[in-house]
Write a structure and sequence with these properties.
- The structure is a single chain.
- The protein is an alpha/beta fold and 373 residues long.
- The chain contains 15 helices and 17 strands.
- Helix 2 links the parallel strand 4 and strand 5.
- The two termini are 34 Å apart.
- 38% of the residues are buried.
- The structure holds S-adenosylmethionine and iron/sulfur cluster.
- Iron/sulfur cluster (SF4) binds next to loops.
Length: 373
C-alpha cells in the first residue's frame, strides 16, 4: 500500500559483465546465479518501504551497474513489479542491447533509456575498458529506436587520456548524428583506488588545465545543435529533461532500493551497505537491510538545495536558500558577473556555470557549528 509522499524511486541493479577500470559505482561482475535472489530481495525491500511512496509515483530510475546485463527473465519480473510512473528510465550498456532486450524494456513499461556510449573512438573506448566499439553503440541506439523508444539519452565521457580536442569534436558529432533527445557529458574523473587512476591518474592531473576548454567545447557544440544546457553536465531537446535526476537537483525526497542505494526522506538520509550477502539474507528474513543513517538538519537540506539548484538553468527561488547564502559573497560574485538575480531567483551566469562548484562553495555562508544540531 502506498500512503507516503515520496514521488521518486531509484532501483539499483549492480551486475556488470566486467568492471571498467575508471568506475567506482557499486557493481558486481557476473554473478548470474544471484540475479534471481537479488530481484527477490529488491521486491522485498520495495514491499517494506513501499508505504513511503505516493500512489502516483512520478519517476522510476533503474540504474547500475548494468541493469540490462541482468538475466532477462529477472529483469522482466522486476519491471512488471515496479510502480507505474510517468517516466521509467533504465540504464543500458550497448553490448547488452539486442532487439529482444529493447522489446523487453518496452513491454516492461520503460519510457526512457540512458545508453552508456562514452565515446565513438575505438582506441579511447579501449582505454576505458569498454566492451562495445563505436558500431556496437550505434547498433544499440538503432535497436532502441526500432523498438519505439522516443526518449533516449547518451552518456559521453571527455578528457580520456589520448583524446585531442579534434577527437572530442568528432565524438560530439557522432553522438549528434544519432539524434538523441538527451545527452549527459561528464569529464573523466580519477576515482581513488580504481585501476584507471593507478594507470592514468598522473596523466589526468597533467591535463586538468585543458579540461575547461573541453567543457566549453561540449557546451558550445551542443547549444549550437539546438540542445538546452539545463544542468551542468546535461543537455536536452525541448521538454526532455531527465525528470528523475531533476528531482534530485530540486531537492525532492526519493526512495532508493538495492545494495548501495541512497534514500532521502524528510530529515533522514540512509544508504544501504554495498554488501550483497547481508542484503540478501536480511531481506530473506523480511528485515530491512543493513544501512548507514544520517540525520539531515533543515539547514543541511537548504545548503544542498543551493548547491544542486545552482547546477540548473532555471532561477533558484532566493527565499528558499537565503539562510544558506553569505550576502557579502553574493554581492562580490554578482559584481564579478558570475551570479545573477532574476525574478526573485538566483542563478549562475554562463561564465559562473563554467566555474560551477567553486562559485557555489563561495556563496555558502559559514555556518556556526551549533546550527548543525
Ligand atoms: C554508473 S554508470 C552506469 C551506466 C552503465 N553501466 C555504463 O557503464 O554505461 C553511469 C555513468 O556514469 C559515468 N561515469 C562512471 N564513472 C565515471 C568516471 N570515473 N568519470 C566520469 N564519468 C563516469 C559514465 O558516463 C556512465 O555512463
Ligand atoms: S561503468 Fe558501467 S559497465 Fe562499467 S563497471 Fe561501471 S557500471 Fe559497470
Amino acid at each position: 500500500m502506498s500512503t507516503g509522499g515520496v514521488r521518486h524511486l531509484y532501483v539499483h541493479l549492480p551486475f556488470c559483465s566486467s568492471r571498467c577500470g575508471y568506475c567506482d559505482f557499486v557493481t558486481l561482475v557476473g554473478r548470474r546465479e544471484d540475479h534471481g535472489r537479488y530481484v527477490d530481495a529488491l521486491l522485498a525491500e520495495l514491499e517494506l518501504e513501499g508505504p513511503r511512496l505516493t500512489s502516483e509515483v512520478e519517476t522510476v530510475f533503474v540504474g547500475g551497474g548494468t541493469p540490462t546485463f541482468t538475466e532477462p527473465g529477472e529483469l522482466r519480473r522486476l519491471l512488471a513489479a515496479l510502480p507505474a510512473a510517468e517516466e521509467v528510465s533504465v540504464e543500458a550498456n550497448p553490448e547488452t542491447v539486442t532487439p529482444e532486450l529493447a522489446a523487453l524494456l518496452r513491454a516492461g513499461g520503460v519510457t526512457r533509456v540512458s545508453l552508456g556510449a562514452q565515446s565513438f573512438d575505438e582506441r579511447l573506448l579501449g582505454v576505458l575498458d569498454r566492451r562495445a566499439g563505436p558500431d556496437g553503440v550505434r547498433r544499440a541506439f538503432y535497436h532502441l529506436r526500432d523498438a519505439g523508444f522516443d526518449n533516449i539519452s547518451l552518456d559521453l565521457i571527455y578528457g580520456i587520456p589520448g583524446q585531442e580536442p579534434s577527437g572530442l569534436r568528432r565524438d560530439l558529432d557522432e553522438a549528434l548524428a544519432l539524434g538523441p533527445e538527451h545527452l549527459s557529458c561528464y569529464e573523466l574523473e580519477a576515482k581513488p583506488g580504481t585501476r584507471f587512476t593507478h594507470a592514468h591518474g598522473e596523466e589526468l592531473a597533467r591535463q586538468a588545465e585543458s579540461m575547461e576548454g573541453y567543457f566549453e567545447l561540449v557546451v558550445a557544440t551542443l547549444i549550437d545543435a539546438g540542445y538546452r544546457w539545463y544542468e551542468t553536465a546535461n543537455f536536452c531537446r525541448d521538454g526532455r529533461r531527465a525528470r528523475h535526476n531533476l528531482a534530485y537537483w530540486l531537492g525532492r525526497d526519493y526512495l532508493g532500493v538495492g545494495i548501495g542505494a541512497v534514500s532521502t526522506v524528510g530529515g533522514l538520509r540512509w544508504r544501504n551497505l554495498p554488501a550483497l550477502p547481508r542484503y540478501l539474507s536480511a531481506l530473506a528474513r523480511g528485515e530491512a537491510p543493513p544501512r548507514e543513517l544520517e540525520p539531515l538538519p533543515a539547514l543541511t537540506r537548504i545548503q544542498e538545495r543551493l548547491m544542486l539548484g545552482l547546477r540548473l538553468d532555471d532561477p533558484l527561488p532566493f527565499a528558499e536558500v537565503e539562510e544558506a547564502v553569505d550576502p557579502a559573497a553574493l554581492g562580490r560574485l554578482e559584481g564579478l558577473g558570475l551570479v545573477e538575480r532574476r525574478a526573485g531567483g538566483l542563478l549562475l551566469t554562463r561564465r559562473g556555470r563554467f566555474l560551477g562548484g567553486g562559485v557555489t562553495a563561495e556563496l555558502l555562508a559559514e555556518i556556526p557549528a551549533n546550527n548543525y544540531n
